[in-house]
Design goal:
Number of helices: 12
Structural class: alpha+beta
Mean pLDDT: 88
Number of strands: 19
Strand content: 15-25%
Strand order of the largest sheet: 14-13-18-19-17-16-15
Radius of gyration: 23 Å
């Protein structure tokens, strides 16, 4: 939602960051379609923690690993340089003359007693006294958590997960290279093999909560580094989220039993952490399954299997599209693509609209090949508006048919299992 100024600061009312950019610039659905691959250049501009800040986003840090997830009422603000580049890209592509405006108010000067801190991106920024205090509080609990985790390695049972000395060393290296995002208000995330702890929060996790967070994010970072070492793809999946959360909770459970003087028990997903003595207990907990719904846009696994559906929070339609690795997607007039080989399918946020993309081994922004609307799971008007803007009108688009074919295991013949359309601007 714009504030009357084209200054690169706006509130997300629905849709994603690119939808917010379109609203801020007053772009029509036709304009958005004309931009085409320029959107990828725009995304590359803000795929940098120095270029975009997001607040009030339910502790989620939008980045390439989560497809830049933003929630309603999140506040997005681009740096002046980044916003100028975005507007210039739009102007040159659409032959417009959108003028960038200066913010109505300047940022308040840093307090006289503020200090400097090196941020995750390597830049030195002035921090307020409050931010500095929060940073130091987080650093102390992180460092203590890591120290105790190393001392209790075998008691945590992490040795049974990281079975080789090489893997153990790599996991511990991830813990030793934690960086702090002192201006961010989330909890933590892993990005390109590095753990980021976000510290601009009034409350700091206690030792047990921080240990659980660090194990979760360190496993993400470990998997990202292993993929880089082995030159294979790694991208966010439901399977990885399940693995990281399961490892974190079962390991923390063992630490609570082995050292109750240090580790306080607490409740998560409706149970105490000390109850998660094995993975099956966690996986059969309804609240955990509900947590996993927050990742419904992700592929199920690195093979490319994926489930497309409506948001369980917004729709009573329980229908699904179950796509499998090896399925062949053929859009009329285009070369067929194979899921898990020449393309991957993910959801667009929490809608029944799918997107066909291709991930890269260097964790850069995936290539986009278009969106898919399935005949047996049609997107709703609300979903279209959420993803493409309130002015979306399907009549302004050409509906290009596609099929999804799958090899019959008995006959070996390819059979059409799904049909649908992809939309193209007229």
């Amino acid at each position: 939602m714009g504030d009357g100024q084209i200054d690169g600061k706006f509130v997300i009312t629905n849709g994603g960051i690119t939808h917010g950019i379109a609203e801020e610039l007053g772009l029509s659905s036709s304009d958005c379609k004309k931009l085409g691959s320029i959107w990828l250049e725009i995304i590359k501009e803000f795929d940098n923690s120095d270029n975009m800040k997001v607040q009030n986003n339910n502790n989620v840090n939008p980045n390439s690993n989560n497809n830049y997830m933003v929630h309603q009422n999140a506040v997005v603000q681009f740096s002046k340089e980044c916003w100028n580049k975005i507007v210039n890209l739009v102007n040159s592509t659409l032959d417009k003359n959108i003028q960038v405006e200066e913010p109505l108010t300047e940022q308040p000067p840093a307090a006289a007693n503020s200090t400097t801190e090196i941020q995750a991106a390597g830049s030195v920024e002035e921090l307020t006294q409050e931010q500095t205090a929060r940073l130091e509080e987080h650093k102390q609990i992180v460092e203590k958590s890591i120290q105790l985790l190393k001392q209790n390695w075998e008691l945590s049972d992490l040795g049974n997960h990281f079975k080789t000395e090489e893997d153990k060393a790599l996991f511990l290296q991830c813990l030793d290279e934690v960086v702090y995002d002192a201006r961010k208000t989330g909890a933590g995330h892993a990005e390109k093999g590095i753990i980021h702890i976000e510290t601009d929060n009034p409350e700091c996790n206690n030792l047990t909560q921080m240990t659980k967070l660090l194990i979760h994010e360190a496993n993400h970072a470990f998997l990202q580094r292993k993929a880089t070492q082995n030159r294979i793809l790694n991208f966010p999946t439901k399977a990885e989220e399940i693995e990281c959360e399961t490892l974190a909770l079962t390991s923390t459970c063992r630490l609570i039993y082995s050292n109750p003087a240090e580790y306080d028990d607490y409740r998560i997903y409706g149970r105490y952490v000390s109850e998660y003595v094995d993975a099956s207990i966690l996986h059969n907990t309804p609240e955990f399954k509900n947590w996993l719904n927050g990742y419904q846009q992700l592929a199920d696994n690195l093979r490319g299997d994926v489930t497309i559906r409506h948001s369980p929070y917004k729709s009573n339609d329980n229908g699904t599209v179950e796509l499998k690795s090896g399925d062949i997607i053929t859009i009329q007039g285009e070369t067929p693509r194979v899921i898990g080989s020449s393309c991957f399918i993910e959801g667009r946020s929490d809608t029944a609209i799918a997107q066909m993309i291709m991930h890269h081994k260097d964790f850069s922004t995936p290539d986009s090949f278009g969106d898919l609307i399935f005949d047996n799971l049609p997107a709703t008007d609300e979903e279209f508006k959420q993803e493409y803007g309130e002015s979306f009108d399907i009549n302004n688009f050409e509906k290009v048919p596609f099929t999804v074919s799958r090899k019959n295991p008995q006959t070996g013949e390819a059979e059409v299992v799904y049909t649908g359309v992809t939309l193209r601007g007229k």
